[in-house]
């Protein structure tokens, strides 16, 4: 009798534990993926990195962010060689990830059924589903497996919808159509691998807010992206704050070094290698005289970071 009760309990437990995978990840799964994030979250579970930090990140150089992430063991967060709507602009934002795959009829029907259960629009194309989920400050990041012909994930209509919901743009490891129309959307920007006049065909959305690959980079929902003319880098949310502060201090360090080189106080060899205690002390004195109004961070953030021993000289 005890064995029967035990088997019944195991079966019931397994039944209740089995949950059908939806099109979009559950908040619980996203929280597992981003367990190191300790701050506020969206209802879908993604980390809610502050707008203020996203604004500061626009001044960070790709190389500085890349170097910081490499130092933390994150070697696969960069992708380059993009076509960009507005190369002179910088975009930062919180990532919503989307996976596309070659069309398979039975799987497409299953995705449609699951989308209907999630109360998604099943009349139009599924490539509109992630757009409906976007919040201000989000970036629509999709793996279209670098398909150009018949792999156009958006045109000007969906581009307008993306900007309306996010006030931001997109990054597609794939293609777009109607570039002229996309360029007409004021404030909108996008990174893609190519463009083509064809419509999306023989390609299907399979999931939203799961880990995806963008070229050589791995991207998780809730990552922060920094995109500019030099490429895109995807930053784990829990590292974004320190990355920005560390990179800002590197920027100050460079300002100091350039100034001292122009003054011929130090040689290029002295500045371009590990600094002596004398140069470090000179840098700290230089920072004390730096106007608070021109600092990219607060004076307290600067002092706390320098005193923590994390500063890179």
TrEMBL record:
<dbReference type="InterPro" id="IPR036704">
    <property type="entry name" value="RraA/RraA-like_sf"/>
</dbReference>
<keyword id="KW-0479">Metal-binding</keyword>
<dbReference type="Pfam" id="PF03737">
    <property type="entry name" value="RraA-like"/>
</dbReference>
<keyword id="KW-0460">Magnesium</keyword>
<dbReference type="GO" id="GO:0046872">
    <property type="term" value="F:metal ion binding"/>
</dbReference>
<feature type="binding site">
    <location>
        <position position="177"/>
    </location>
    <ligand>
        <name>substrate</name>
    </ligand>
</feature>
<feature type="signal peptide">
    <location>
        <begin position="1"/>
        <end position="19"/>
    </location>
</feature>
<protein>
    <submittedName>
        <fullName>RraA family protein</fullName>
    </submittedName>
</protein>
<dbReference type="InterPro" id="IPR005493">
    <property type="entry name" value="RraA/RraA-like"/>
</dbReference>
<feature type="binding site">
    <location>
        <position position="178"/>
    </location>
    <ligand>
        <name>Mg(2+)</name>
    </ligand>
</feature>
<feature type="binding site">
    <location>
        <begin position="155"/>
        <end position="158"/>
    </location>
    <ligand>
        <name>substrate</name>
    </ligand>
</feature>
<keyword id="KW-0732">Signal</keyword>
């Amino acid at each position: 009798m005890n064995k029967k009760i035990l088997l019944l309990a195991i079966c019931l437990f397994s039944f209740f534990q089995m949950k059908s995978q939806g099109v979009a990840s559950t908040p619980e799964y996203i929280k597992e993926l981003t367990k190191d994030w300790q701050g506020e979250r969206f209802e879908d579970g993604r980390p809610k990195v502050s707008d203020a930090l996203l604004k500061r990140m626009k001044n960070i150089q790709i190389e500085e962010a890349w170097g910081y992430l490499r130092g933390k063991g994150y070697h696969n967060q960069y992708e380059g060689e993009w076509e960009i709507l507005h190369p002179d602009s910088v975009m930062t934002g919180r990532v919503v990830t989307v996976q596309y795959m070659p069309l398979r009829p039975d799987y497409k029907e299953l995705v449609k059924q699951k989308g209907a259960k999630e109360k998604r629009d099943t009349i139009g194309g599924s490539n509109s589903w992630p757009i409906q989920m976007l919040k201000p400050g989000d970036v629509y990041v999709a793996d279209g497996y670098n398909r150009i012909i018949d792999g156009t994930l958006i045109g000007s209509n969906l581009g307008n919808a993306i900007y309306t919901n996010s006030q931001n743009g997109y990054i597609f490891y794939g293609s777009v159509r109607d570039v002229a129309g996309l360029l007409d959307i004021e404030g909108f920007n996008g990174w893609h691998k190519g463009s083509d006049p064809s419509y999306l065909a023989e390609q299907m959305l399979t999931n939203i807010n799961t880990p995806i690959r963008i070229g050589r980079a791995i991207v998780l929902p809730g990552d922060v992206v920094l995109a500019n003319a030099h490429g895109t880098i995807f930053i784990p949310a829990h590292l974004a704050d320190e990355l920005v502060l560390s990179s800002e201090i590197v920027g100050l360090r460079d300002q100091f070094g350039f100034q001292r080189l122009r003054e011929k106080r130090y040689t290029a060899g002295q500045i371009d290698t590990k600094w002596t205690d004398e140069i470090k002390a000179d840098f700290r004195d230089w920072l004390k005289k730096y106007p608070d109004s021109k600092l990219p961070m607060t004076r307290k953030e600067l002092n706390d970071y320098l005193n923590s021993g994390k500063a890179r000289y």
